[in-house]
Amino acid sequence: MKLTVKQEQANDLLGSSAEQILLYGGSRSGKTFLIVRAIVVRALAASFSRHAVFRFRFNAVMASIVADTFPKVMRSCWPELKYSVDKREWVARFENDSEIWFGGLDDKERTEKILGMEFSSIFLNEASQIPKSSRDIAVTRLAQKVKIDGTERDLRRKLYLDENPPSKGHWTYKLFIEKRDPDTKIPLGDQQNYVALQMNPYDNMDNLPADYIKTLEGLSARLQKRFVRGEFADANPDALFDDATIDKWRVLDGVVPDLQRIVIGVDPSGASDRDTTEHDSIGVIVAGLGTDGNAYVLEDCTVKGGPRLWGAIATGAFDRHQADLIVGEANFGGAMVQHVIQTARPRTPYKAVIASRGKVVRAEPIAALYDVGKVRHVGYFRDLEDELAGFSTIGYTGTGSPNRADAAIWALSELFPGIVAERKKQKVKPLPQQRMIWAG
Prior knowledge:
With 440 residues, the protein is an alpha/beta fold. It folds into 2 domains: 5-227, P-loop containing nucleotide triphosphate hydrolases (Rossmann fold), CATH 3.40.50.300; 243-425, Nucleotidyltransferase, domain 5. 36% of the residues lie in helices and 18% in strands. The chain contains 15 helices and 16 strands. An 8-stranded mixed beta sheet has the order 3-4-5-2-6-7-1-8, with helices on both faces. A 6-stranded mixed beta sheet has the order 13-12-9-10-11-14. Strands 15-16 form a two-stranded antiparallel sheet. It is elongated, with a radius of gyration of 24 Å.
């Protein structure tokens, strides 16, 4: 394969004397491919060397690295090389007895086993999702001493990281961009060992479909900053919903547990069938409660139209997902919403909810559930996530009306009635953090 100019720069950086290297930037710029490629080069250069690739969630590393990037690297760069992947231990083995281990921080037993070993290189994929405490532990496991084959030179130990940049409040920004200790804020004494390179999809045009950039340019300004221009966002300590948190728990392989309850949340507007242009969209969100106790956002069916259209959309989603209930805000008239739903689909179970509190107060307990992974998005919901990003402790700061977010909050509140009600009574005390091995 032929590397682009920016990828050549990144490749040189990955092979430099720096000990900790971050590649950050927009989507599909080649960051992960290059780091996996560098790890394979290192594995082949030093017999009996050991390497590890981690993501926050085990399913994510399986889907994105084991099933996608790693075999793609091997096909592109070493099509004739023999290797094996042990699908019980999830480790790739080469003929020189080098190994690459794959793991997720949410797999307690497996993570403890991997952490009992020493490594020559460790890759933290999507570091924006990974706590600094995990990075700190990873550094202690970079302790394998191994020679480069045919020489007396030790293979330099390396910590590699990549990410679509989160906010400037994240530890990766403080460590690699500001070059300060994220905890003490003191400048690093060995700054030459912490290096970073920005890579964006424009730097990888030769390897992308012709219309991919156009697709990215259709994203909102907020998402373009992260996924196109690859820039760290200004830190917002007042934000309720954080991109990195949503990404951390996002389900990308489509695999969800059995759902014990499915709810359609509806946030109606006052539009009639004849007058829809001046009114907001009608939020229609599908969410389900899994047997694992977590909620899964399944579909965004939001539409701009009158009652006849959104009623058909909402009840269509009800049938498609075999839902249990439609819950809708009654501020425009609970009887009206119920009439629309049951006209579109007679005898559909419906529950009216009244927005007696402000948007932020309603959103706070749901945001706390997101923080601890109790709510997970199945795939990407760009418009919904844009609206969630606008919620802050000082009010809703987004543009327009957050119809999708409101519908999601109604649905999720219905799936967690006890937790949400209890948190309202306690004036929204934070939920206890889930204990997670190596995740801090």
